[in-house]
């Protein structure tokens, strides 16, 4: 495989995964908070076929009730599939409140993946702005920014995140919590990209064509926009592929610890927290699904990061 | 010596900066330990104000900072409001537990990663290297959190390992060797999770820097001169590849107190992680700050140690 196809494959793979989360409203058979109290911890529903038509049996007293069957209907009520009440279809089983884990996984992916993307966007934006200013301006501004960065880097990352989150108000709405998470995760992570970008800018400033443009009287703004920023693109892209998965994990960790997005809105982190009762987990291992869902996402980003790094080092 | 002194001073200044910043941040953040009490209708506003005055929270920032510094110098690290005791004694037992866990894991991870990485670098292109690369990439993509939960689930299912904690009930009545066995038995799972978490990154770095050394022109010339493979690998190439690994080792040492937070919380290990989480949830500022400062000191010290080692090992750095 050439590098181009590798990158394209990784991007397509990640695109599909993110697409699943983005279209959760269509793909998921149930709203994320819809409870089916009569089916707590139901195992994944088995799909049967009769004349190539998929259907599910009713579920009662811990096993399939073959006297009742419900055909799976497609494209009903604005959703991809579903079954008529009182039948239920839980592709990945249900949780303690009888909520469909598959639906929650998709909706939860929305929160977790979007946090990763937006926080990385914020970090890189900050890093780009501060790194460029520090590298281009130099002098006291550079000193202040880089010393400030060292202070942030002297703290263990997760500790910093937890402390910042915990010292801000804990009882807020889910939407506020979501944006607060993005701001904290993204805001804390600007240092590393800023340092890398500063390095690129420092060396770019002395390049021949930049000096020449300056000699022709180009303004600082023009130099930065036209000559220096394009040079930082490589670093920004590789940093993005490193930061996004890291930030997804950060969201998962914070929500897991109860400092992130809270019930009933699902995120992979707070869903995993529900799986934390090990003694019961053996009886319903499908509660681990949100943890497993992270793996392909991380793998995709890892492949992308590795391929980008390889092509940059050559 | 002057270099080391300068770096030491730099590290100290960094820590002072971190503590100042923490005080400033905590001052700006809304709420403190007593604000939870305000929701309790039976506690009057006057009582809260009195409590606040008693614990010195109403004093101006510089005074509080000075008091805190004095307390650090005494070894108390401030006064924990939630535990109603100086912070120092609360910390040491926790630090020991965390260091036991992360120290063992870090040692094991490096002992596995070094030979594995070196072997991978020499065996590039073979199926062995390919397999190890795929396995390690997969490991890298598994969140520690999931690994910890799955291991605990298996421990409960099989009963071979304890489900969390550091010692069994009735530990105090055990004899010396039995105690040791008990701790090792409890240590196994969290250490395994930590090692699996650290391994991929370490092996990748070892492999990359060894590969660079192997591909360098001096390695080719040394081989042409007939230097035996073992000697070439360990006497010539390993020192040449050592610099980034020393920095990484310093970082490993630096994260000894902070690397295991999540795993400690999930697996019920009585280390700094759960203590920190409790402290920030209760807004017990002194306790949280002490944990943060301690782990930051470790991080700074780890980097410092790496720099000193590099300085000793590499004459090129000494000349600068």
Features of the shown structure:
A: 314 residues; mainly alpha; three-stranded antiparallel β-sheet; two-stranded antiparallel sheet; 12 helices; 9% strand; B: 320 residues
Beta percentage of chain A is 5-15%
Number of helices of chain A: 12
User: What is the strand content of chain B?
Assistant: under 5%
Biggest beta sheet summary of chain A: 3 strands, antiparallel
**Backbone CA Rg of chain A:** 24 Å
Uncertain segments of chain B of ≥5 residues (pLDDT<50)?
none
Spans of chain A of at least 5 consecutive residues whose pLDDT stays below 50 are none
Which sheet architecture does the biggest sheet of chain B show? Answer: 2 strands, antiparallel
Topology:
The complex is a heterodimer of chains A (314) and B (320).
Chain A: H1 3-22, H2 24-27, E1 48-50, E2 53-60, E3 63-71, E4 73-76, E5 79-82, H3 101-137, H4 139-153, H5 157-167, H6 174-188, H7 191-205, H8 208-215, H9 220-256, H10 268-274, H11 278-281, H12 289-312
Antiparallel strand pairs in A: 1-2, 2-3, 4-5
Helix pairs in contact in A: 1-3, 1-12, 3-4, 3-6, 3-7, 3-9, 5-6, 7-9, 8-9, 9-10, 9-12, 10-12
Chain B: H1 2-28, H2 45-54, H3 61-74, E1 79-80, E2 85-86, H4 87-122, H5 127-141, H6 144-158, H7 176-214, H8 217-224, H9 229-254, H10 261-267, H11 272-281, H12 285-313, H13 315-319
Antiparallel strand pairs in B: 1-2
Helix pairs in contact in B: 1-12, 4-7, 5-7, 6-7, 6-10, 7-9, 9-12, 10-11, 11-12
């Amino acid at each position: 495989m050439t590098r181009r196809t590798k990158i394209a494959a990784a991007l397509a793979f990640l695109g599909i995964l993110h697409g699943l989360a983005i279209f959760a409203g269509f793909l998921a058979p149930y709203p994320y908070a819809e409870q089916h109290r009569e089916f707590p911890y139901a195992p994944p529903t088995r799909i049967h076929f009769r004349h190539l038509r998929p259907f599910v049996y009713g579920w009662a007293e811990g096993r399939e009730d073959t006297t009742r069957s419900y055909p799976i209907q497609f494209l009903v009520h604005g959703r991809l599939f579903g079954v008529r009440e009182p039948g239920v279809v839980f592709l990945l089983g249900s949780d303690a409140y009888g909520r469909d884990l598959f639906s929650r996984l998709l909706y939860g992916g929305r929160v977790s993946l979007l946090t990763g993307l937006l926080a990385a966007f914020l970090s890189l934006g900050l890093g780009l702005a501060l790194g460029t200013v520090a590298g281009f301006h130099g002098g006291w501004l550079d000193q202040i920014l880089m010393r400030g960065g060292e202070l942030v880097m002297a703290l263990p990352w997760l500790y910093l995140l937890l402390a910042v989150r915990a010292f801000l108000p804990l009882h807020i709405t889910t939407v506020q919590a979501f944006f607060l998470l993005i701001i904290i995760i993204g805001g804390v992570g600007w240092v590393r990209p800023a340092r890398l970008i500063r390095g690129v800018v420092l060396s770019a400033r002395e390049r021949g064509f930049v000096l020449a443009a300056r000699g022709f009287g180009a303004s600082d703004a023009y130099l930065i926009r036209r000559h220096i920023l394009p040079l930082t693109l490589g670093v920004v892209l590789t940093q993005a592929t490193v930061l996004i998965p890291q930030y997804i994990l950060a969201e998962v960790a914070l929500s897991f610890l109860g400092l992130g997005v809270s019930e009933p809105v699902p995120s992979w982190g707070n869903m995993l927290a529900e799986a934390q009762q090990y003694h019961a987990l053996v009886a319903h291992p499908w509660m681990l699904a949100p943890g497993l869902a992270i793996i392909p996402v991380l793998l995709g980003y890892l492949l992308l990061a590795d391929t980008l790094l390889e092509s940059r080092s050559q | 010596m002057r270099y080391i002194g300068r770096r030491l001073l730099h590290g100290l200044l960094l820590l002072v900066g971190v503590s100042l910043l923490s005080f400033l941040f905590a001052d700006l953040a809304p709420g403190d330990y007593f604000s939870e009490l305000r929701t309790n209708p039976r506690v009057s506003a006057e009582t809260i104000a009195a409590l606040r005055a008693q614990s010195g929270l109403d004093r101006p920032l510089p005074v509080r900072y000075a008091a805190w510094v004095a307390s650090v110098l005494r070894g108390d690290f401030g006064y924990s409001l939630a535990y109603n005791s100086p912070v120092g004694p609360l910390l040491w037992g926790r630090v020991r537990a965390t260091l036991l866990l992360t120290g063992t894991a870090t040692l094991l991870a490096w002992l596995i990663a070094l030979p594995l990485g070196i072997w991978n670098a020499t065996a590039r292109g073979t199926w062995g290297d390919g397999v190890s690369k795929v396995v390690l990439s997969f490991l890298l993509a598994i969140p520690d959190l999931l690994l910890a939960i799955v291991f605990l689930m298996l421990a409960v299912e099989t009963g071979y390992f304890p489900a969390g904690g550091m010692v069994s009930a009735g530990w105090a009545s055990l004899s010396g060797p039995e105690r040791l066995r008990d701790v090792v038995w409890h240590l196994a799972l969290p250490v395994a999770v930590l090692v699996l978490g650290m391994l991929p990154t370490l092996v990748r770095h070892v492999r990359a820097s060894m590969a660079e050394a192997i591909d360098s022109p001096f390695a080719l010339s040394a081989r042409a001169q007939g230097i035996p493979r073992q000697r070439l690998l360990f006497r010539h190439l390993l020192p040449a590849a050592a610099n980034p690994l020393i920095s990484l080792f310093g970082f490993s040492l630096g994260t000894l107190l902070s690397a295991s937070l999540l795993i400690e919380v999930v697996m019920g290990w009585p280390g700094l992680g759960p203590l920190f989480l409790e402290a920030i949830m209760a807004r017990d500022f002194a306790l949280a700050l002490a944990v943060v400062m301690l782990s930051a000191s470790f991080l700074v010290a780890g980097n410092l140690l790496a720099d000193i080692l590099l300085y000793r090992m590499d004459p090129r750095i000494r000349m600068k």
